[in-house]
Structure formats: C-alpha cells, structure tokens
Amino acid sequence: MDIRNFAGFAAAAELMNFTLAAKRLNITQSALSRQIRALETYLGVELFEKAGRNVRLTAGGQALFAKVNDVLQADRALRTSADDLGRGETGVLKIGACSQLIERYLPHFLKSWERRHPGIDIRIEDGGGPELADKLRAGAVHLTVSARPFAPIDLFETLLLGKLGFVALGTEEFLPPSGEPMEIAELLQFPILTLNKRHASREVFDAACKLAGALPLIKLESYSPHTLFSMAAAGNGVAIVPSSANSFPGGLVRKPVTLRGQRIEFDICAMWNNSAPLPAYGQRFVDELRGAIQADAEEERMRRHQVLPVSRRVA
After folding, report:
1. The model scores a pTM over 0.90
2. 3-state SS string over 43-68?
3. Angle of helix 280-304 relative to helix 99-116, nearest 10 degrees?
4. Tens digit of pLDDT per residue, the chain (315 long)?
C-alpha cells in the first residue's frame, strides 16, 4: 500500500474537504479521490460520506483515523532513522530549555553524552515555557525541556521526564531552621520573591496560592532565580522556586513547600513537533536524559530518608 494513500486520507479527515486536502498535498482532487478509493478497497471499509459540499467520516473512518496517523508517524520515524544511518550518526540537535533545568540536569549529563556521541552537535538555548513553545512551533529548536504546560498543545509530542516540587528560601527571620516542610499558606504571610510568568512553573505556583485561599504579596518577579536568592539573602522576603534550585547563597534556609500536607509538584517534560519527528539520536538523547533525571530523583528521595549522605551528580 502506497503511504501517500494514508497521507491523503489523513488530510481529508482533518479538513473534511477534498478540494482543500488536495491543495495541501499539492495534488489534483481527482488524484486524491483515487488515493481514498484505493485505501477503502485495501481496508474493505468506506471511509467518507457526503455532507453537503463537504465530506465527513463514516463510523469506520472515525475508528481508523487515529490508527492511520500512527502509521504515518511510524513511517516518518522509519525514514528519519534510515537518514541517520546513512549519515553515519552525525547531525545537529537544537534544544530549548529553562535555565533551572539546564543548571540542575545538563552540565554533567551533556558532557558525558557528547563524549559517547562525538558526531552530534548539541546546541542549547535558554528560555521560558511559552517562549520555548513558540520556538518549537517555528522550528527554531528540535525539542524543548521545561515544565509541562497547563493546556496540552496538540502539535507537540510530549514525554514525561520527571517531577519537581517547590522550595522556599529565606533567612531565619522568615523561616525556622529545621528541615520540616512549610505550608504555602504560612509562607504567603511574608513578602514573596518569585519567578515571572515566562516560566511555566509560575502557573503551578499561582494555582497553589488560589487553592490555599491566600493572595501572595509579590515583592519581586524575576526571570533569574539567582536574582531572587540575592534578594532573599539580604532579608527582602522569601524566594519560592522550583526544587531544581541547588545552588544558592549560604545562610539561606531551604524548605520544601506543601499544600495541605502534600508537596506541591509539577511535571517536567520533553516536547517536540509531531510533524517533524526527532532524529534517532534526538530520541536517544531524550530517553537517556529521562533515565538520568529519574535516577537523580531517586537519589534525592533516598537522601530525604537519610540513606545516602552524599549527593552524586547526574552523569
């Protein structure tokens, strides 16, 4: 079966109009109709029925639409893998990531990964969540690593890498020195230093404040967590940032943040455009980064239970 027949069906099913679908595919309408008839004959199922000047999927067409998309994605992935083999594993991988995740997970992992894949040129661009999504849509990066957006983006494939929480950092004027977590409602009585809305994690923080029934007094919003740490170290308030932060001035108390006794968590994920599948080395990079992040999370969990006294960096 010609893969173009599957592509013709998918385009017609998305647009519900043969003329528009043929224009998208840069073929004639009669050629598209032949593709659809050939696919119906191959599958033994009628896929479309008339709906005025347009068409609509039959019950059988609706049932097969998702599976046809799976076939198209598998075909793109197969051709991409073949291209990778033909090039002898060389290429460029452009990654957009937020600064906290770069700082926490990438320095040692990236160095190790590049030693094992010397033909792959990794280029990283720092950015916030919505900004990264725009760059991914525009094709400026191949994939992004950031907090999962609240609203799913249909164009993007998403792979969960792990979870992060929030931590509060402040002087003993604001935070007791014990390692016990603090409820977000307690923290919101102090001036708050927080990341700005360019960060996807900020959506989670704002939602937690609403659930706690308290309005934060935000003294500073910043793109840089280190700006927040400097202000907190001088006693200007409490910085609340993702738990990826592991480098901050001495003298600051660091406490996990909870809501009704549960740590506030959010997903971190890799995303790429499903119309431009990752090359095989890109998928391998994502899979290995996921394993490294999950190993780091397990060590963090064990440290909290005092099993591991010494931190080991992600490699």
Report:
1. no
2. HCCCCEEEECCEEEECHHHHHHHHHH
3. 120
4. 788 899 899 888 888 888 888 888 889 999 999 999 999 999 998 998 888 778 889 999 888 888 888 888 777 767 766 665 555 567 899 999 988 899 999 999 999 999 988 889 999 999 877 788 888 888 899 999 998 876 666 678 889 999 999 999 999 999 998 778 999 999 999 999 999 988 888 889 999 999 999 899 999 999 888 999 999 999 999 999 999 887 788 889 999 999 999 999 999 999 998 877 788 899 999 999 999 999 988 887 787 665 444 444 444
The two three-digit tokens of residue 168, written as one number:
């509060």
The encoded tokens of residue 273 equal 């455009």
